[in-house]
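During the second year of the project, the team shifted from modelling isolated chains to modelling whole assemblies. The rationale, set out in the original proposal, was that interfaces cannot be judged from single-chain predictions alone. As a representative example for this report, we include one of the complexes processed in the last quarter. Its constituent sequences, exactly as entered into the pipeline, are reproduced here:
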Amino acid sequence: MNFDFSDDAKALGEQAQKLLAERGGPAKARLAMGQNEEGGAPDFDAGLWAEVAGLGWTAARVPEAHGGLGMSAEESAMLAEAAGEHLACVPLVSTLLATEALLLAGTAEQQARWFPGIASGEVIAVPAWNEPGIASPLGVAVRVEGGRISGVKAPVADLAGAQLAIVAAAGADGPSLWIVEVSNARVEAVETLDLVRRHGRLVMDGTPAEPLGTAADYLAWLDRAAVILAFEAMGTARAAMTMTVEYAKTRVAFGQTIGRYQGVKHKCADMYIKLELARAHALHGLALLEAGGAELTQAASAARVASLEALTFTVEETVQLHGGIGFTWESDCQFYYRRGRTLTAALGARGFWADRLVRALELRNRAAA
Amino acid sequence: MDFNDTAQDAEYRAKARGWLEENAAEYRSPPASPWKLDEFIRRSKAWQKAKYEAGYAGITWPKAMGGQGLSPMHSIIYGQEESRFHAPSGLFSIGLGMCIPTVFTHGSPEVIQRYVAKALVGEEVWCQLFSEPAAGSDLAGIRTKAVKDGDDWVIDGQKVWTSFAHASDFGIVVCRTDPGVPKHKGLSMFIVDMKAPGVEVRGIKQMSGGSDFNEVFFTGVRIADTHRLGAVGDGWKVALTTLMHERLAVGGKPRHAPGYQTLMTLAKGVDAPNGQPAIEASDVRQRIAASYIADEGIKLTQMRALSALSRGQMPGPEQSIAKVVVAKTMQDMSAFALDLAGSDGFMTGGADPELEKLQGSYLWSAGLRIAGGTDEILRNIIAERVLGLPGDLRPDKDKPFNAAA
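Output from the structure prediction step:
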């Protein structure tokens, strides 16, 4: 049995942790927030993106035949976790998620068309699954007629600066996958609770679209995305937990560091407990993603619910345990608190995935009966 | 990542499974009615002897102690296979899991010679005498005293929550030998003959109705100095050896405890308050998911440990989350399930065995949250040892025991 990352994935993870710790973190997030506030901000940290691409991170999952490194999903998980931990201001996770869709459903031509650009970092690709007014990733109003797609996707993370969007559109058997070149659609900025990561509205009105995958592909993609997003959420939760534990070791009240009080330390312990429960499911999901296991839906759903549970609890108690200073604009707590909403809104909240998990368990029970 | 056994592990598993299929056949199902104590002891001893003879006792113990000298992975694999049966192995779990490893780590060659083999082969049963009425979470606060008298020690005091004391031949008992030094320093560990004059065992009736534990009273009980484990004053260190084994032993979900599947089955048969089938109600589905995440999450966390062990590495600190998650989840899940069942979940002696199990689980979980480290102590341990937060202030820690408040 081996329930651990490969040496290659660990090495990449270490590299990502090192670079993003230097080039990311709350200070960089604050800089990006300031730029966003002033307007006319860059779409993302272009210098860092060039480095990220130069190190082959966007190429990790791309097959060797298309200029990539042909690595496993373990590498994507490691990268997503590091990006989440350091609030990296680059469209890395979005591109990794879109890459999964092309891997899963892309024809040889589609892969040949898009993968070399993704591998080199020239093409930024983003998933566009959310729609205004619809909470479930399965509820899709965007329509395709005669190869032309119409409707609105929002919020779409990292849309500004992206060339390629993987779009879900309604079909007879449920939402299916389409490729839309962003330059053919209209992009508008949308304001969200996250003041660091930028989101956009993709407005399509008879925009050319190319079929990418079936309804089954769409569902398989959601499961893969849930696993990778779980790692991003765990990274963010861990960063918030670490910051809180360090604060509890130094902040003094009533003549002792607050970390001595059980009212404080037990909340820190609960952060750890929830994080490790999430990690167990995320690792399970990752193993099944690689092995193509039939229980991926179950594992991915559990990973998504458990990681959002850990993240939500952790960011809330991070503000709480910092006390008044944690509620100020100057404190870094807000980045984690707000990012908790970003990652929840990214792909269906806990209720959706809890239902998907129980549905998978029901199907399994029925098959076993 | 790979969920499968290595070739060697698979071979060991197949061998153990084959042996169990042949020798544990009568334990394929639970007994129709619970065994009486005598029969339980007789069966337990026979089962332990059979395991010993087949090489499945003391799997990780050194060969010099009569064990197999194999890795923790082998022990876990055997345990997984044995848990598919209902064989009576509980009677020896504390003695062989905790007491005897303490004996062979700290005992003299004569003591080891006298006791270890007889325990392993299932002839003699052991219990662990640590907790006291005034020393639960604060274990070092024990008051049972041992006073030197010639070559003997004389023991007076009371222990509590001692599993299987009524069935035990021997026990390890931690006593205060010097009340004039700080509490962790004045303790010593002894082997006590549970049949010696002055030892009195009384069953405790728990709030759940059962009697799984005892109080043990010591009145002028004499123990030869040769039966001391470790140096005089080193009892705390010796006890830590024992407790290290306990935390591993009580980590998992009780084997036949209800889980998320119980909740799913129940929710299909009852209606939610708004009249829809409970299984379709969103809050019910969220609770099923939460229960799955806890139950399976702990199983998967234990697989992470296994995976580390199978590669010769130490398991990570994440193993410390198991008991605190399992016990509270059991309580929450049982309460939610009984809620769903409405007043049927309240009436006992009914016809529905699943509801009865849930009622039992609701009562038992209240004890599980306390046994082997309370939720609060376990959170302290995670916060202090894993996250590095400072320890609680302990005003009595450095004061002589008899001078502390």
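Chain B has eleven helices and eight strands. Residues 142 and 391 of chain B are 21 Å apart (CA to CA).
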